Amino acid sequence: MPRPLGISSLRILAAVRDGIAYGLDIVAHTEMPSGTVYPTLGRLKRSGLLAARWEDQRVAEREGRPRRRYYELTAEGAGALANGLARVASVAAELSPDGAGGV
Q1: Domains of the chain with bracketed CATH
Q2: Given a cut of 50, is residue 77 above it in pLDDT?
Q3: How confident is the model at residue 71 (pLDDT cuts 50, 70, 90)?
Q4: What pTM value is reported for the model?
Q5: Assuming Cys at both sites, which of 5, 61, 66, 70 could form a disulfide with 9, CB separation 3.0 to 4.6 Å?
């Protein structure tokens, strides 16, 4: 059984689900350090939860910037995100003083 996804992975998957598609935007959106985001993106891609593609070099050159790598959530990634969010909600409910999830 695979290890459950941590909060950083869930935040990154949720950002990609919400249309935040490349590394620096994911860093800004999640407010996590690049030293956390980029290695996690690599792990999520290798595990099949994210797909990635490089943009056309001509687009980057036209805009005067480095080429971007765009990420998208795979079907497996969407399922892992849903399971992870349910697990987090369950833990939050267990930790709530009234047991209703009002952490």
Answers
A1: 7-93 (1.10.10.10)
A2: yes
A3: very high
A4: 0.87
A5: 5
